[in-house]
Amino acid sequence: MPYFFGEDVQKYLEKIRLHLINLNLANSMMQNLIDPERPTWVKKRGDEFMAITKFYEEAPRLFGPYMKAHQTA
Predict the structure, then answer these.
(1) Which distant-in-sequence residues (6+ apart) come within 8 Å of 50 by Cβ?
(2) Which helix (H) or strand (E) holds 71?
(3) pLDDT per position as a tens digit, 6-16
(4) Which pTM does this prediction carry?
Protein backbone atom coordinates (compact mmCIF):
# COMPACT_ATOMS: atom_id res chain seq x y z
CA MET A 1 0.00 0.00 0.00
CA PRO A 2 2.78 2.54 0.56
CA TYR A 3 3.11 3.02 -3.17
CA PHE A 4 -0.49 4.10 -3.59
CA PHE A 5 -1.37 5.94 -0.37
CA GLY A 6 0.26 8.24 2.12
CA GLU A 7 1.12 7.56 5.73
CA ASP A 8 -2.32 8.66 6.93
CA VAL A 9 -4.04 5.86 4.99
CA GLN A 10 -1.41 3.32 5.97
CA LYS A 11 -1.93 4.09 9.67
CA TYR A 12 -5.69 3.89 9.23
CA LEU A 13 -5.49 0.51 7.49
CA GLU A 14 -3.26 -0.79 10.27
CA LYS A 15 -5.84 0.38 12.80
CA ILE A 16 -8.58 -1.48 10.90
CA ARG A 17 -6.38 -4.58 10.72
CA LEU A 18 -5.96 -4.54 14.51
CA HIS A 19 -9.70 -4.13 15.01
CA LEU A 20 -10.29 -7.16 12.78
CA ILE A 21 -7.80 -9.22 14.78
CA ASN A 22 -9.44 -8.18 18.05
CA LEU A 23 -12.89 -8.93 16.66
CA ASN A 24 -11.77 -12.42 15.71
CA LEU A 25 -10.29 -12.93 19.18
CA ALA A 26 -13.48 -11.76 20.87
CA ASN A 27 -15.59 -14.04 18.67
CA SER A 28 -13.41 -16.99 19.65
CA MET A 29 -13.31 -16.19 23.35
CA MET A 30 -17.05 -15.64 23.73
CA GLN A 31 -17.80 -19.16 22.44
CA ASN A 32 -17.22 -20.53 25.95
CA LEU A 33 -20.67 -20.04 27.47
CA ILE A 34 -19.54 -20.82 31.04
CA ASP A 35 -16.50 -18.52 31.10
CA PRO A 36 -17.05 -15.76 33.68
CA GLU A 37 -15.25 -13.36 31.32
CA ARG A 38 -17.78 -13.96 28.52
CA PRO A 39 -19.67 -10.68 29.10
CA THR A 40 -16.38 -8.81 28.73
CA TRP A 41 -15.73 -10.54 25.40
CA VAL A 42 -19.27 -9.88 24.20
CA LYS A 43 -18.78 -6.17 24.89
CA LYS A 44 -15.33 -6.24 23.25
CA ARG A 45 -16.89 -7.87 20.18
CA GLY A 46 -19.47 -5.09 19.91
CA ASP A 47 -16.89 -2.36 20.40
CA GLU A 48 -14.57 -3.80 17.75
CA PHE A 49 -17.42 -4.32 15.31
CA MET A 50 -18.59 -0.73 15.71
CA ALA A 51 -15.03 0.54 15.19
CA ILE A 52 -14.81 -1.44 11.95
CA THR A 53 -18.17 -0.18 10.68
CA LYS A 54 -16.94 3.42 11.05
CA PHE A 55 -14.93 2.67 7.90
CA TYR A 56 -17.86 3.93 5.83
CA GLU A 57 -17.74 7.30 7.60
CA GLU A 58 -13.97 7.66 7.74
CA ALA A 59 -12.77 6.16 4.45
CA PRO A 60 -14.14 8.76 2.01
CA ARG A 61 -12.20 11.53 3.76
CA LEU A 62 -8.98 9.49 3.77
CA PHE A 63 -9.18 7.78 0.39
CA GLY A 64 -11.00 10.51 -1.51
CA PRO A 65 -7.99 12.64 -2.41
CA TYR A 66 -6.17 9.60 -3.81
CA MET A 67 -9.12 8.50 -5.88
CA LYS A 68 -9.74 11.96 -7.31
CA ALA A 69 -6.10 12.25 -8.34
CA HIS A 70 -6.71 9.65 -11.07
CA GLN A 71 -9.83 11.22 -12.54
CA THR A 72 -9.65 13.34 -15.67
CA ALA A 73 -11.69 16.46 -16.12
Answers:
(1) none
(2) none
(3) 899 999 999 99
(4) 0.82
